[in-house]
Each structure stands twice: as C-alpha cells, then as structure tokens.
Amino acid sequence: MENPFEIILNKLIAIENSISQLQNQLNNHSSTEQELMTVSEVADYLHLTKSAIYGLVQRREIPVIKKSRLYFLKKEINEWLLTFRQKTNAELTEEVDELLVRKRPKNN
Q1: Its pTM surpasses 0.90
Q2: Taking Cα atoms as reference points, which of 11, 45, 32, 25 lies closest to residue 75?
Q3: Which residues are CB-contacts of 33 (< 8 A; sequence separation ≥ 6)?
C-alpha cells in the first residue's frame, strides 16, 4: 500500500504546477492587454481598412493615443468592442422581468 503522505505530497506538487501554469498564462495575457498597437495592427485586428480606422479616430469613436503618431491600447480596443455586444434573448427577457417587478404597484 502506498504511503498516504506521498499521495498527498504528489497531489500538492500537481496543484503547485497547475497554479504556476495559470500564473504564467495570466502574466502573458496582461502583458498583451497593455500592448500598444499601430493603425495597421488595429485595422488587421478588427478586419477593417486603415482608412476606416482613421475615420473612427476623426469622429472620436475609438479610443486612441495621439503622440506624433496614433497608438491604440489593445485592452481599450477590446473594451470598446464589448460596447457593441448584443444581448441574448435570455438577457433581454431577464431585464424586462426585473423592470416589471420594480414597476409593479405595491399593495398596502
């Protein structure tokens, strides 16, 4: 029969390895989120033309950093994209239900 302490030790080592891998993934993710992108890179990322990106910048519709050139933070571009997210039917139904509950007159 295997020593129970060895079993526990092996499981702890596996857990530590998993945590270490998750930390590495988080570090890699956060560094790419702070990545600066050029107009060309943002155009490729969003599958738009460079002129479309310039139009968004001119109309102040996209977050941009202007410092002799145009730069974009990938994190801000991702957040900007999420503002266009359409809600699912389930989410819309839930919102309507919540509004109806709030508007329902209270019986005294």
Answers
A1: no
A2: 32
A3: 73, 74, 75, 78
| Contact by Cβ (8 Å): 47, 53 | no
Vertex 85: Cα angle to 84 and 90 (nearest 5): 145
Q: Cα separation of 1 and 73, whole Å?
A: 57
Helix axes 74-82, 39-46, angle to 10 degrees: 40
Q: Quote the tokens at residue 28.
A: 């890699």
Strand, coil or helix: 77: helix
Tell me the torsion sign for CA atoms 62, 65, 67, 68. negative
pLDDT of residue 102: 85
Report the mean per-residue pLDDT for the chain.
89
Q: Are 12 and 19 a contacting pair, CB within 8 Å?
A: no
Instruction: State residue 42's pLDDT score.
Output: 97
